[in-house]
Amino acid sequence: MQNHATAPATSAASGASRFAELPATASHGPLRIEYRWVNEQPDAPEDDAPLVVFLHEGLGSIAMWRDWPQTLCERLGMRGLVYSRPGYGLSTPRAAHEKWPVDFMSVQARDILPALLDALAIELRQRQRMWVIGHSDGGSIALLYAALYPEALAGAVVIAPHVFVEDLSVQGIAQTKALYESTDLRAKLARYHADVDSAFYGWNDIWLDPAFRRWSIVDALAPIRRPLLAIQGHEDNYGTMAQIDTIAARVPHAQLVKLDACGHSPHRDAPAALNDAIAAFVRAQP
């Protein structure tokens, strides 16, 4: 999910967008993925600084992050990788007739992210020092990646993640569809996506599909072994504290942060508190 876009697309990620070509697999056709580096170190050894991979929200893209990945990477002393998932930003758009499957987030965690890391020659020893940070749908993908590949990351931070479908989420997404089709929201989002209808309806259609009401990744969380921080705002209009409380019940070592005066997008609503929480958590790890 997302806050309604109101500003021009900007990003402090280093340089212009680059593109990685991913070959077709059983779960997807050939893909062109837009990506950028943050704090790129071209003259340093490839594994000199730990890497943070940022996974955007349900209507996000590289540009929608704005300057937050840069700010956080500087705070952590790490380099970052931001990318637009298929259907978003400048990555391969969703075909007009294509409908995402109920397990689309599992496909992203199991297939797309590892394939991108392979394409960028990020080896296992680098992944073992890598932090995965995801927001909203991206938070769910980060959880699934941490469960599927527990030896291929240092830890995960999930911000306003979804582990099951709440009525509140569906109501908010239905309202967003009405705004998209009756206000200037479509024009605002078009600043961030080459094919804005691909981005919007890929996300909106599956979340509003009756079959998706049964979606849950709760039972998939148990294999998570690496450090895990889950963050939620008290005023999130797309999910309740039940989401991260459920994570803590299934992953006992997970730590929770609940932010006051904060909605669905802490990196925009409460960036100082969010950065403080993430920095303290990451630095506390051995």
UniProtKB/TrEMBL annotation:
Highest taxon in the source lineage: Bacteria
Gene Ontology molecular functions: hydrolase activity
Keyword Coiled coil in record: no
Stretches of the chain forming a coiled coil according to its record: none
InterPro entries: AB_hydrolase_1 (IPR000073), AB_hydrolase_fold (IPR029058), AB_hydrolase_sf (IPR050266)
Domain annotation AB hydrolase-1: ranges: 52-277
UniProt keyword list: Hydrolase
Pfam families linked to this entry: Abhydrolase_6
PANTHER family: HYDROLASE, PUTATIVE (AFU_ORTHOLOGUE AFUA_2G14860)-RELATED (PTHR43798:SF33), MONOACYLGLYCEROL LIPASE (PTHR43798)
Protein name: Alpha/beta hydrolase
